[in-house]
Amino acid sequence: MGLAFTAFVQIKTSDHSESWYRKFVDVVTPFPEVMECYRMAGEYDYMMKVQVADMGAFDRFYKKLVNSIGGLTDVTSTFAMEPLKYTTALPL
Q: Are the C-beta atoms of residues 8 and 49 closer than 8 Å to each other?
């Protein structure tokens, strides 16, 4: 598929209003690169799992993201080097 580059993007915002939250969801949801997105407790407000082809594709995604919504105070990305475990099976 050519989408071997996995990034985890952590986001902080200065705006915690309902209207900003709705705009953020409306902006992020259509991005095909975003595989998962969570509202978090702790140091960061949101976290996304992003799947792209390579660093260049991630850079394009990053620029599109940060230019699509205001109020972002910190966007930190980390990159997976090797998947050690992946499953969708629930421990029932």
A: yes
**pTM, full prediction:** 0.92
pLDDT band at 78 (very low <50, low <70, confident <90, very high): very high
Give the three-state DSSP class for 24.
helix
Instruction: Kindly tell me if the per-residue pLDDT of 1 is higher than 90.
Output: no
Kindly tell me the number of DSSP H helices and DSSP E strands found in the chain.
2, 4
Structural domains of the chain sorted by starting position, each given as residue range(s) with its CATH number in brackets? 5-79 (3.30.70.920)
- Sheet of 46-52: strand order equals 34-39, 46-52, 5-13, 72-79
Half-sphere exposure of 9 (CA within 13 A, CB side): 24
The pLDDT tens digits of the residues spanning 3-26 come to 899 999 999 999 999 999 999 999
Q: Which tokens sit at 72?
A: 């972002």
